[in-house]
Amino acid sequence: MTDLLLDLWIDCEPPLRSGQQTIIVPLPPPVICPKCKVPFQKRRCPRCGKRQKPRFAQVQTAEYKQTLKGMARLLFAHLPADWTPVAAPVLLRLDIVVAYRQAEPKARRGLYCPHDVTPDADNVCKFYGDALEQATYVVNDKLLHPLILRWWGPRPGLRIRMWPLTPQVSLDQVGGLAFAQENA
After folding, report:
1. d(CA 92, CA 86)
2. Is the pTM of this model over 0.90?
3. Among 35, 63, 81, 135, which residue has the fewest nearby CB atoms (within 10 Å)?
4. Which domain range does residue 160 map to?
5. Distance between CA 120 and CA 66 in Å, rounded?
6. What's the CATH code of the domain at 163?
7. Counts for the chain of helices (H) and strands (E), in that order
């Protein structure tokens, strides 16, 4: 097994909602045909006849930006002193432990149970990838190969572990699926 780059536990209440949704806003149409450099007239180029297409942009909500900024600050506060941002592909295992609900029976409260409600794992993956990038753990969040586990538990928090990604990395040893090449 390759060396562990980072093993970090942060006592916090992980956000259950990141405001991940994006808003689609219409952009003003171009006024000049990109091909002929002639002004459009009635949504059509008078020279080449090219139709003007409506343009849209995706914008992140203010709630997402604010939640991301708060998580990045928390992660930055726990950044090891000798840490340099990782510029190579890494395997990221993120354990997210959320406090029990009040409706949870006390008989089950001492155990860690899988967290099976919102947010979805893909939204969580994007959110924490962006937060790790802003907190300078990684150079680019595209370098992360995540394994995200969500739990109900008695001690809420985050556990972040990173390994350099090589063909010899076995997710069995990391605590997940095995994909290592057996005869490598």
Report:
1. 12
2. no
3. 81
4. 6-21+61-174
5. 19
6. 3.30.1330.70
7. 3, 7
